[in-house]
Amino acid sequence: QELYDNGLKKTNQGFGARLNAFFAQFRSVDENFFDELEDLLIESDVGFETSEELIDQLKDEAKLQNVKSHDELKKLIVQKLVEIYDQNGDADAEKLTYNEGKTNVYLFVGVNGAGKTTTIGKLAQRFKQEGKKVVLVAADTFRAGAVEQLKEWGKRTETEVVTGPVQADPASVVYDGVKHGLEEDADYVLVDTAGRLQNKQNLMKELEKIERTIKKLVPDQPCETLLVLDGSTGQNALLQAKDFDKTTKLTGLVLTKLDGSSKGGVILAIRNEMKLPVKLVGLGEKAEDLADFDAASYAVGLFH
Ligand code: GDP
């Protein structure tokens, strides 16, 4: 919780400070107030569609409950933010899938620099601490540095890393890696992939092939296909999510760099428009800077 609060401080300072400053300006809760609040939400990357929905609901609810004071309204906003977030009513949606006694394959996708390799390193550390056996697969064979970086995480977390020759077919590295994980009875196989945007079509084909390859070995895997997004890219993150979702069947999101200049609102936009749960948040560059997402503390934190 402390990590969470500290890590999210900047994001909350951004979005939250704007909300708080906004409240300070207004004496009464009228039409103008709601219009301005909607603008603020859109500016904070909540997105047009989601902001409009939220404001409509807030207006109705404020009238219904005869809300007049700022504090009451803040409480209502927090409640609505959490509701938007938890709309599916599935409390387990945020939990990472884990099938006991099986080799759980997680596929990580996302553009270069989003934080895939770092997230895999952090997760390897978490799973190792839980006493699990983990295998990492370096399928970003396009960028030489990517393999080295994953190997570095492997060393740090004492986790085996399966690699292939330079410029190898990523799917063949994935084949070797998953096969190895199965032979070793690993609890987790975490697959890193390339994220070059310059050639999107080839990238998407490559990801499809990787998914097929995994399914050939284990039909019910990958049990998680996680899209890693840089939270500070704002609305662009939403566009990326839509792009990747077309090719790979995403099961959830990892939002990284929430310790940075993220405006935070994009979490709501993606959740509302894509119906994808945020499973993890990145709150720094170190191995321990990874947390499960919690909608309530996120929303409440906005007003701290
Ligand atoms: P990839 O290309 O998607 O594998 O991205 P990397 O894992 O290489 O991350 C790109 C950069 O972002 C690296 O310098 C990471 O240290 C940094 N990074 C990743 N996650 C976070 C995070 O949650 N917070 C911060 N501050 N930096 C991060």
From TrEMBL:
GTP binds at residues 110-117, 192-196, 256-259. GO terms for biological process: SRP-dependent cotranslational protein targeting to membrane. It is a peripheral membrane protein. It catalyses: GTP + H2O = GDP + phosphate + H(+). GO terms for molecular function: GTP binding; GTPase activity; signal recognition particle binding. Residues 277-290 form the SRP54-type proteins GTP-binding domain. Keywords: Cell membrane, Cytoplasm, GTP-binding, Hydrolase, Membrane, Nucleotide-binding, Receptor. Coiled coil: none annotated. Its main location: membrane. One of its GO terms (cellular component) is cytoplasm. Its EC number is 3.6.5.4. It is found in: Cell membrane; Cytoplasm. Involved in targeting and insertion of nascent membrane proteins into the cytoplasmic membrane. Acts as a receptor for the complex formed by the signal recognition particle (SRP) and the ribosome-nascent chain (RNC). Belongs to the GTP-binding SRP family. FtsY subfamily. Part of the signal recognition particle protein translocation system, which is composed of SRP and FtsY. This is Signal recognition particle receptor FtsY. It comes from Lactobacillus jensenii. The gene is ftsY.
